[in-house]
């Protein structure tokens, strides 16, 4: 097992070894790490729901009523009435006929992609910058994976034409919002191409739910494409502030996944505290778009201010704000200096992003105040000048 130590040392020498910090407080706009209160700019807690009083209260209520663990997989003895309650609410929220609840967004891709395109004669078309969970889910299928250049509709069309006469099923999978750059999939064009070529369309809306669409209903709602996207895959660990994953679509799709998807068949059901917390999160989003509006206001403010300082914030179309620094060593140093100054913002380096594009991915939340964000801008400016990255 000597290779383990050798590879870890190589990562350290190459500036690719990550420092994993431990939170000693609830997730929020400010968190406690190593006994210090720091501004949190790197969580996926888009709407500030991780520690919302209604979410906490609902969890306590349901634990008192139903206990904690489901005790089994969904298909044996693990389906409890709160699971079905949440599935109904999520389907209605997404504007879909039905939804299936699994353990995580990662598991939702594992449940969907290899189940719908399992055979060697099938084809899976995948955006070059899709999330690792999509990549791993594709690997579980025997179908060859055809990668198309990121959001390049000409390349996608050419690949679809090239494989038009291939036997078997054809499935296209794309992120809705690409998590490292914050850009949005060209979904209307993708839908047109899939319809023209008889291709099943799966959209992973992990960073779109709670962010895009009416009151955070996601990318399909954002583009008005209800009924034209076959499968919406999602996670409940970001804007919803909890844990869990879903696949939403037609009733027959969900029935099929219940019978055949391996995460549903061979891994225990989501716990009752998770289910209860998610129920509260959905209810909050159904009642008001206030948190979504505040998130976007915060995102626009921070992006504008950081860009004005001279930072490269890429081409994000969402509140995700990448501050692209280039070299992994610079990103690591920048992150460390931010932490010393009171800001928790992790460096993102290869293999999460391509070499030469290391960055601080700044993640704002509806929980941040304008004063929080002004402190962030001033601190980024100070560190950038100290490192010679700004004039």
Automatic annotation (TrEMBL):
GO terms for molecular function: glycine C-acetyltransferase activity; ligase activity; pyridoxal phosphate binding. Keywords: Acyltransferase, Ligase, Pyridoxal phosphate, Transferase. It is an enzyme of class 2 (transferase). The keyword NAD does not apply. Its cofactor is pyridoxal 5'-phosphate. Residues 37-379 form the Aminotransferase class I/classII large domain. The keyword Isomerase does not apply. Its EC number is 2.3.1.29. InterPro entries: Aminotrans_II_pyridoxalP_BS, Aminotransferase_I/II_large, AON_synthase_class-II, AONS_Archaea/Firmicutes, PyrdxlP-dep_Trfase, PyrdxlP-dep_Trfase_major, PyrdxlP-dep_Trfase_small. Belongs to the class-II pyridoxal-phosphate-dependent aminotransferase family. Homodimer. NCBIfam families: gly_Cac_T_rel, PRK06939.1. This is 2-amino-3-ketobutyrate coenzyme A ligase.
């Amino acid at each position: 097992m000597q290779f383990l130590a050798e590879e870890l040392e190589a990562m350290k020498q190459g500036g690719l070894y990550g420092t994993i910090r431990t939170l000693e407080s609830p997730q929020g706009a400010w968190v406690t790490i190593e006994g210090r209160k720091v501004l949190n700019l790197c969580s996926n807690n888009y709407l500030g729901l991780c520690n919302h009083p209604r979410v906490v209260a609902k969890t306590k209520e349901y634990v008192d009523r139903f206990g904690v663990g489901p005790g089994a997989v969904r298909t044996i003895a693990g389906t409890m009435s709160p699971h079905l309650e949440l599935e109904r609410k999520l389907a209605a929220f997404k504007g879909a006929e039905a939804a299936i609840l699994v353990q995580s967004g990662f598991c939702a891709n594992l449940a969907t992609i290899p189940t719908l395109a399992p055979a060697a004669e099938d084809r899976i078309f995948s955006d070059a910058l899709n999330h690792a969970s999509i990549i791993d889910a594709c690997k579980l299928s025997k179908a060859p994976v055809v990668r198309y250049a990121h959001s390049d509709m000409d390349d996608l069309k050419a690949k679809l034409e090239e494989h038009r006469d291939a036997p078997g099923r054809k499935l296209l999978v794309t992120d809705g919002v690409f998590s490292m750059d914050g850009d949005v999939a060209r979904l209307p064009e993708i839908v047109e191409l899939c319809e023209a070529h008889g291709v099943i369309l799966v959209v992973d809306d992990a960073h779109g739910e709670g962010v895009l669409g009416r009151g955070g209903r996601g990318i399909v709602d954002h583009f008005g494409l209800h009924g034209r996207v076959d499968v919406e895959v999602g996670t409940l660990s970001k804007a919803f502030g909890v844990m869990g994953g879903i696949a939403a679509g037609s009733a027959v799709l969900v029935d099929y996944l219940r019978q055949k998807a391996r995460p549903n068949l061979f891994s225990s059901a989501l716990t009752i505290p998770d289910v209860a917390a998610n129920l509260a999160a959905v209810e909050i989003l159904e009642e008001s778009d206030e948190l979504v509006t505040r998130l976007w206001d915060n995102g626009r403010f921070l992006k504008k201010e950081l860009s004005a300082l001279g930072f490269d914030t890429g081409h994000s179309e969402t509140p995700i704000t990448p501050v692209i620094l280039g070299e992994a060593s610079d990103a690591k140093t920048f992150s460390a200096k931010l932490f010393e100054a009171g800001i928790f913002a992790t460096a993102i380096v290869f293999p999460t992003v391509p070499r030469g594009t290391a960055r601080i991915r700044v993640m704002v939340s509806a929980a941040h105040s304008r004063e929080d964000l002004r402190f962030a801008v001033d601190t980024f400016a100070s560190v950038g000048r100290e490192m010679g990255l700004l004039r």
